[in-house]
Write a structure and sequence with these properties.
Blueprint (H helix, E strand, L loop, with lengths): L1 H16 L8 H25 L3 E3 L11 E4 L8 E8 L8 E7 L5 E8 L4 E8 L2 E7 L6 E9 L2 E10 L1 E5 L8 E8 L2 E9 L5 E8 L5 E10 L2 E9 L4 E10 L2 E3 L12 E2 L15 E6 L13 E8 L6 E10 L4 E4 L8 E5 L6 E6 L12 E10 L4 H6 L3 E5 L4 E6 L11 H7 E3 L2
Antiparallel strand pairs: 1-3, 2-3, 3-4, 4-5, 6-7, 7-8, 8-9, 10-11, 11-12, 12-13, 14-15, 15-16, 16-17, 16-18, 19-20, 20-21, 21-22, 22-28, 23-24, 24-25, 25-27, 26-27
The structure holds calcium ion (3 copies).
């Protein structure tokens, strides 16, 4: 370690002499081994209690991804550790949970062990002092959730259920987050919001949505007045999607979209609600065919995506923007006003390249007027293919690790419909 530090310090000195800022600090370097030492001590304590024939289990999603999660689960000001593992000698593959605590001698010891509700841990969350764990198991279709309370040396399940969606956000604007659980129930959906009260108890608010839900395709929280609402994209029996918004108010779950508004959000599969522009508010996409695709089978044409937000009083959907959405390459191009109803689009099914055309329905081709003309083309590729696109006259204007995005102007650059590079950058959003 000493030698490594010396080398790093020498490197830092070299970097400084080259006038470049360095982005690591000596504090980071010194604290990293401490964390590792602590994890090793917890691991040793777990083995002393559970034996060597164990395999650690890592949560697959969420904020806590370690097999050892340290958190103050009883509110005494000191962190306990939760350890997730399976025992090789057992025929059941259920995850076991151990609660470990540090004694007054500073040594970690296992305090309590119990079986979880699946063979994998999906995510771990904390609501107040309570521990919420989502589990999955290959043999069950639905995931399982347990909320536990730790006291008197016992980790006790105080809530259990199945779930399709398990997440948390401040859905009532109280300043702390509630756990939200969504599951399919019969032909409909059941939503529960678990709110920890001042006295440490919790209340489970419930709502049954009577609509035929084949599956839940997406869920995302977004700002809604002074709280977060859950936007749930529900797959219908016909293969499309509708969106329901849900939040907690006045001691009940409110769904302003139920019945009426959600019917206005019907669209083909794949178009999920999202905060595409990062302003905190979730937009709901609703599709209308571009000119020339009015007769195409539902879901197979080219569509203008109309992004709606729920109005502040929840009574209507307000149009925020219109865009072309390319799910394959993962981007949204919002359409400037002068493009709306004035352009149409075609897409190359194999390359995903999108070509926009001017469209003037009032033009008379017999009088030599142009009804439609290719104006701009948008393409995406792996970054390694950039040179060949640039040779072919495309300009790269955005990139991610996996993709570069290009544009090529196909008509007279002075034509009013041509977008400037600034406009392209302002209207372009990468969504995946
Ligand atoms: Ca504690
Ligand atoms: Ca809250
Ligand atoms: Ca937004």
């Amino acid at each position: 370690m000493r030698k490594l530090l010396a080398i790093l310090l020498a490197f830092a000195a070299l970097s400084l002499s080259g006038c470049r800022a360095i982005t690591f600090s000596i504090d980071d370097l010194l604290s990293a081994p401490k964390v590792a030492d602590e994890q090793t001590a917890i691991y040793q304590a777990l083995i002393e209690s559970a034996g060597r024939g164990i395999a650690l289990v890592y949560p697959r999603g969420g904020d806590y991804r370690s097999a050892f999660v340290q958190y103050d689960i009883d509110g005494d000001g000191e962190e306990e550790a939760l350890a997730f593992y399976t025992v090789s000698s057992l025929t059941d593959s259920n995850v076991k949970i151990a609660v470990l605590d540090r004694g007054s001698d500073g040594k970690w010891r296992s305090q309590y062990e119990l079986a979880g509700a699946g063979s994998s841990v999906e995510r771990v969350m904390f609501s107040g002092k309570d521990t919420v764990i989502g589990y999955s198991a290959q043999e069950y279709e639905e995931n399982a959730v347990r909320m536990y309370r730790y006291g008197g040396g016992i980790l006790e399940p105080i809530y259990e259920g199945t779930y399709s969606v398990l997440d948390m956000a401040d859905v009532d604007g109280c300043g702390s987050e509630e756990i939200t659980v969504v599951r399919r129930s019969g032909l409909g959906l059941e939503i529960e919001m678990l709110k920890t009260e001042q006295d440490g108890s919790y209340t489970a608010y419930g709502l049954q949505l009577e609509e035929s839900a084949a599956a839940i395709s997406g869920s995302v929280f977004g700002d809604y007045s002074d709280r977060k609402a859950l936007y749930l994209d529900v797959s219908t029996e016909s293969g499309g999607l509708v969106t329901e918004a849900l939040y907690l108010s006045g001691g009940e779950i409110v769904c302003p979209t139920a019945g009426g508004l959600s019917m206005q959000t019907q669209r083909p599969a794949g178009y999920l609600s999202l905060d595409y522009d990062g302003d905190g508010t979730v937009e709901i996409p609703v599709l209308t065919p571009f000119t020339g695709y009015e007769q195409a089978p539902w879901g197979e044409g080219e569509y203008c995506t109309n992004w709606f937000r729920l109005s502040d009083d929840g009574s209507s959907l307000e149009l925020k923007s219109m865009s072309y959405t390319n799910l394959r390459d993962g981007y949204i191009l919002t359409l400037p006003n002068r493009w709306q109803n004035m352009v149409t689009v075609s897409r190359d099914q194999s390359t995903g390249e999108v070509m926009f055309y001017s469209f003037d329905s009032s033009a008379d081709p017999e009088a030599g007027q142009t009804v439609s003309e290719a104006i701009m083309s948008f393409a995406a590729s792996e970054p390694s293919a950039a040179a060949s696109y640039e040779e072919a006259g495309y300009t790269a204007f955005a990139k991610t690790e996996l993709r570069s995005f290009y544009v090529k102007t196909l008509a007279d650059p002075d034509m009013p419909l041509i977008l400037t590079m600034d406009e392209i950058k302002d209207n372009f959003y990468i969504i995946s």
